[in-house]
Every structure is written in structure tokens, then in C-alpha cells.
Amino acid sequence: RGRKGIFETLVVTDDIRDLVMERSNSSTIRKRALINGMRTLRMDGTNKVLSGMTSIEEVLRVTQDDTEIL
Predict the structure, then answer these.
(1) pTM, whole model, 2 decimals?
(2) d(Cα 33, Cα 28) in Å, to the nearest integer?
């Protein structure tokens, strides 16, 4: 159908598990996940733009701005 997915996967490491058990807020968990190597939807979309699979306009349309996370 000509559609491509973009994905964001949170791997539950010991660090992330500890933050969840401490009832940390989602921003704190997200920051730690990014430090541990998680790629955001926009990052995955950007890689697909660079590989010619989609357009930057489409990625911007379907993702939130995540530049102020760190």
C-alpha cells in the first residue's frame, strides 16, 4: 500500500525498571532511555528520510517535536 512505519521502542533495562518502580515521571524515564540509546519516532523517521523512504514533511506531520527532551 506504499506505507512505511516509524517506530520507537523502549527497552526495559535495569535503569528503566528502577525508575518505573520509583514511580519517576515519564520525562525522567524518557531522558534515561535516550541516554541508553533509545531512538525516538522522529529519529527513526529522519533515518527513513535520509534513506529516501519518505519525505521530511510526512515525518514532521506525524511526529512531535522532541528536540527539548534532553
Answers:
(1) 0.76
(2) 9
**C-alpha triplet 6, 12, 14: angle, nearest 5°:** 150
Nearest partner of 11 among 28, 32, 27, judged by Cα: 32
Residue 69, pLDDT score: 53
The cell numbers describing 46, all together, are 529522519
The answer to whether 62 and 5 have CB atoms below 8 angstroms apart is: no
Vertex 8: Cα angle to 1 and 17 (nearest 5)? 150
DSSP symbols for 20-42: HHTT--HHHHHHHHHHTT---HH
Do 38 and 11 form a contact (C-beta atoms < 8 A)? yes
Contacts of 54 by beta carbon, 8 Å cutoff, 6+ apart: 4, 45, 48
